[in-house]
Structures are given as C-alpha cells and as structure tokens.
Amino acid sequence: MNLLLIRLIIFAVLFFAGLKLYRMYREWKQDRDADGRQDASPGNPMVRCAWCKVHLPENDALREKGEWFCSPDHRDKYLAESSSEE
Fold first, then answer.
1. Which residues 6+ apart lie within 8 Å of 44 measured at CB?
2. pTM across the whole model
C-alpha cells in the first residue's frame, strides 16, 4: 500500500510540474509572438499617400477631400497642385 501511495505522489508531482512548464512555455511563446506583430496589427489597415505614394498605417495618416497623406506638407502640396489644375 505504501508503494502505491508513493507512486501516486510522484505521479501528481510530475503532472503538476509538467503543467507548470507547459504554462510557462505558452506564456513565453505568446510574448515572443506579440513582439513580432507590433508593426503589422490586423486592426490597422495601410493607406497610400496621394503625393509621394508611400504606404503608412491609417491611424498615422491625414485625410483630406477623400485622399490620404503622410504629412501636412504633402497634403498642402497636393491640394495646391490640384487647385491650380482646375
């Protein structure tokens, strides 16, 4: 009976140690994956500047008259050029 109890205790210790190692591995993997995905988040679409054609995240871009711009300077240049053509 003692041998059965010792085996049960050893099995329980090994089970909980394995569970703890698995949780640590899963947390480490999530942290590593999160570090690699900071630049390309799925909720942040890319848009193209109408002046220089550079792509940038939508939340960093400026929108004016249905066009996207990477900076106020490019917005002003584009709008000045488009108003002079009219």
1. 57, 58, 59
2. 0.49
